[in-house]
Write a structure and sequence with these properties.
mainly beta; Jelly Rolls; 8-stranded antiparallel beta sheet; 5-stranded antiparallel beta sheet; 1 helix; binds magnesium ion
Length: about 260
C-alpha cells in the first residue's frame, strides 16, 4: 500500500513541476491563446434553403401525399390495388369496408402534416364515433377519433398512441370541423440480432397544441395485448378504415 502511495506522490510532484514550468491553468492566457468570437463559428456546411408554404401548405422540400386532386400516392393496404376511398371536394374519405389505405412510398424519420375531419353528424359514442387512425411506419397508431365532449378510455382517445399513452390534453375541435396533426417521428433502430437499439419517438401537435412530447413508443400498437417490437425497415403511412366516414386532406411529409 505504502509503495503505491509513494508512487502516486511522485507522479503528483512530477505533474506539479510540469505545471509550474508551463504556467498554471489559472494564469491569464497569453494573447495568442485567447478565445476569439470566430473560433466557435463554423460556415460549412451551409444550411439548405426551404421555402415555407403559406399557412398549412407544403414547404418546398415536402412530398405531397394528398393535394385533393387524386389518390395516386395511395394504395389499398389489403392488396396494393387502387384505393376505394372516396375523393370529393379536395378530401379523401373512408368508405366503410374497403379497408385501410397506405402510401406507396415508405418512410423512416419524418415530419408529417395531416388534416382530418370526423363526421358532423354524431351517430355513436366512444370508439365508434369518427374512428380512424394514422399508422406511423404501418405499425404505430396515432389515434383519430371524435373526442369532442365524448369519453372513451384515455389512451384510446384522439391523439393517443393507441393503448400506450393518452394525449397531454384534449385539443379537439367540433365534429365536422377540420383537425390538424403535425407529427415529428423518429423511427426505431434495431441491432443486427433484431433487438431494439433505440425505440421510436413521436411528438405531435393537434391544432397547434402539443399533445405528445417526444413519447417513446413501446412497440406496435395492439388492440389486445402488450406491444412488442419486431425489427423492420422503412414502411408506409397507413390510414385506418374503422367503419366511420372520416375524411383526410392536405397531407404532406418531409423526410428527415
Ligand atoms: Mg383508430
Amino acid at each position: 500500500m505504502q509503495k503505491i502511495s509513494l508512487n502516486a506522490l511522485a507522479l503528483l510532484l512530477c505533474a506539479c513541476g510540469t505545471a509550474a514550468a508551463q504556467g498554471y491553468p489559472s494564469d491569464p492566457p497569453k494573447e495568442e491563446f485567447k478565445m476569439r468570437p470566430e473560433m466557435t463559428e463554423f460556415w460549412e456546411p451551409q444550411v439548405r434553403v426551404v421555402t415555407p408554404g403559406n399557412g398549412t401548405a407544403a414547404p418546398s422540400d415536402a412530398i405531397v401525399l394528398l393535394d385533393g386532386k387524386d389518390l395516386s400516392k395511395w394504395e389499398s393496404a389489403k392488396d396494393g390495388s387502387a384505393p376505394k376511398w372516396e375523393l370529393k371536394d379536395g378530401a379523401m374519405t373512408v368508405v366503410r369496408g374497403t379497408g385501410d389505405v397506405r402510401t406507396k412510398d415508405k418512410f423512416g424519420d419524418f415530419q408529417l402534416h395531416i388534416e382530418w375531419r370526423a363526421p358532423e353528424k354524431v351517430e355513436s359514442q366512444g370508439q365508434g364515433r369518427g374512428n380512424s387512425g394514422i399508422f406511423l411506419q404501418d405499425r404505430y397508431e396515432l389515434q383519430v377519433l371524435d373526442s369532442y365532449q365524448s369519453r372513451t378510455y384515455s389512451n384510446g382517445q384522439a391523439g393517443s398512441i393507441y393503448k400506450q399513452t393518452p394525449p397531454l390534453v384534449n385539443a379537439m375541435r367540433k365534429p365536422g370541423e377540420w383537425q390538424v396533426y403535425d407529427i415529428i417521428y423518429t423511427a426505431p433502430r434495431f441491432k443486427e440480432d433484431g433487438s431494439v437499439f433505440s425505440p421510436a419517438r413521436v411528438t405531435v401537435l393537434h391544432n397547434g397544441v402539443l399533445i405528445q412530447n417526444n413519447f417513446e413508443i413501446k412497440g406496435p400498437t395492439e388492440y389486445i395485448g402488450l406491444p412488442n417490437y419486431k425489427a423492420h425497415s422503412e414502411a408506409p403511412i397507413r390510414l385506418q378504415d374503422h367503419g366511420n366516414p372520416v375524411s383526410y386532406r392536405n397531407i404532406w411529409i418531409r423526410k428527415l
